[in-house]
Amino acid sequence: MIRPALTEWKAAADRLLALSLPAESEQRDEVIAEIETILDLRDRLLPDIQPPFSAEEEVFGRDVLAAEPAVAAKLEQCMSLIRKDLSASQTKKDGVRSYVNPYSKVARDGTFYDTKQ
Fold first, then answer.
1. Computed from CA positions of residues 83, 84, 86, 90, in that sequence, does the dihedral angle turn out positive or negative?
2. pTM over 0.70
3. In a domain, 96, yes or no
4. Distances (CA, A) of 107 to 53, 94, 101
C-alpha cells in the first residue's frame, strides 16, 4: 500500500511538468499562481513522507525521484524567463527615464575645466 502523500507528490510533480509559461502576462500570472499552489502542496506533503518505507513504496519513490531533476529544470526554466522579463522591463524603464530627462546623469558641480591652455 502506497501512502497517499506519495501519490499526491507524484501527481504534483506531473502537474508541474505539464505546465508551460505562456507569453501573455495575464495568463503567465495565473500559471505562476498555480506553480506556487503546487509548491505549497508539496511543502505540506513533505513531513508525511518519512521512513520506514515498504518495498512497494521504495519502488514508487525511485520513480518519483527520477522525475525530480526534470521538475527542477522546468522550475529553473520558468525562473529564467521571469528574470529575463524583469530585466527587460527594468531596461525599458531606464530607457524611458533617460529619454525624459537626458541630463540626469551629468555631473553638475559647477566647475568647468578649460583644456585649451
1. positive
2. yes
3. no
4. 68, 18, 14
pLDDT of residue 11: 96
Share of the chain above pLDDT 70, in %: 92
Say if 114 falls within a structural domain: no
Q: How distant, in Å, are the alpha carbons of 23, 60, 78 from that of 92?
A: 18, 48, 21
- DSSP readout, 40-68? HHHHHHGGG--S---HHHHHHHHHHHHHH
| Domain total in the chain | 1
What is the C-alpha separation between 4 and 23, in angstroms, rounded? Answer: 35
Range of the domain at 37: 4-14+22-89
Look at residue 26 and tell me if it is in a domain: yes
In a domain, 110, yes or no: no
